[in-house]
Amino acid sequence: MKSHHTLLLLFLLFSDHLAPLSAQAFTGTYGINYGRIADNIPSPDEVVKLLRAGKIRNVRIYDADHSVLKAFSGTGLRLVVGLPNGYLKDMSNNASNAMSWVKENVQAFLPNTSICGIAVGNEVLGGSNYESWGLLLDAMKNVYSALTKLHLADAVQITTAHSQAVFANSYPPSSCVFKDNVVQFMKPLLEFFHQIGSPFCLNAYPFLAYMSDPENIDINYALFQKTQGIYDQKTDLHYDNMLDAQIDAAYAALEDAGYEKMEVIVTETGWASHGDDNEAAATTENARTYNYNLRKRLAKRKGTPLRPKNVVKAYIFAVFNENNKPGPTSERNYGLFKADGSISYDIGYDGLKSSPAGSLLLKPAQAPCWLSLLRTLTISTLSLLLLLRE
């Protein structure tokens, strides 16, 4: 009987420590998007130094480039990799393609590279490629199935990011619902997310909302500055900044669809520091104000007026200005850092500054989470065995 008691206690001990391994891609409240549509930005190794110096732990990339995955190895940085939209058809049509992709781009780099999430597609629903709308769910299911078969589903979270194009209306926040032509694709996706415990990921840009209607939107409201704000009569809630309102609009749409308990995470938000002649709000001062105030707001670890218990989490867009991005000038000027690694404006970060040895002086990387867990398990198990011997 004593051996049975020992096994039971060990099981309970291990179960208690293993519980936090459920797929959670976000630690804390602040992350950043590492876009690389540029030919003049620092190497992935230099980017790792930059992020670690800034104590930024959560990072999203838009593909699964192996040079980046190798550079992040052993750093403790939590990485969400992207499966680009162009892969959706292959992943949707054939489960073996999804298995091969996961093996080559995720499993092969674990556990040294802390890949904690896969973003399957980006802003698919509501986009102009209607064929991909019908491919997204099956692609996600096949990727999740591959993770499950490889025993990685509890450590790697599946998500997809949505633009505000999926909403029919977002003002006031309580009026927000999903567009009629999106609902038939969104509801099955939300049901799948509900089953596997994934959040609703939103790319939210007060900058773009302000630019669309500058005559009727107070720029201070968009920049987290003092302002009268807005009042939502239906919910009797007041909003003093636009980002909170955009997040609560998403919560309202989720509630209307029957998923009021699903968490919303902001996967992109930022403000351009330079733009074309018709993008007057894209200034260095506005970008600095938005990102500085956003960082302060996230540090408070508080929720929104509609969901005060759901702490707001957001990934900033982006690490660098990206000179090869198409579109208006603003698209190439969202970076907190310039292409040479120097800061675009001061919000409390240092750029890539050379030490006498020619590199940033950094603290040793934190041990990966699996190594910390192993240490805890070993110490706890030894303590229990010693106790049982007495």
Report on this model:
It comes from Erythroxylum novogranatense. It is an enzyme of class 3 (hydrolase). One of its GO terms (biological process) is carbohydrate metabolic process. It catalyses: Hydrolysis of (1->3)-beta-D-glucosidic linkages in (1->3)-beta-D-glucans. This is glucan endo-1,3-beta-D-glucosidase. The chain is an alpha/beta fold and 390 residues long. 38% of the residues lie in helices and 13% in strands. It has 13 helices and 12 strands. It has an 8-stranded parallel β-barrel, surrounded by 4 helices. β11, α12 and β12 form a beta-alpha-beta unit. α1 runs antiparallel to α13 and α5 crosses α7. It is globular. The N terminus and C terminus are likely disordered.
Per DSSP, what share of the residues sits in E-state strands of 2 or more residues?
Answer: 5-15%
Helicity level: 25-40%
Output the structural class. Answer: alpha/beta
Summed up, the helix count is 13
pLDDT averaged residue by residue: 88
What is the tally of beta strands? 12
Largest sheet descriptor: 8 strands, parallel, barrel
C-alpha end-to-end distance: 16 Å
Radius of gyration: 22 Å
Order of strands, widest sheet: 1-2-3-4-5-8-11-12
Name the overall outline: globular
Stretches with pLDDT under 50, minimum 5 residues: 1-22, 354-390
Order of helices and strands: HEHEHEHHEHHEEEHEHHEEHEHEH
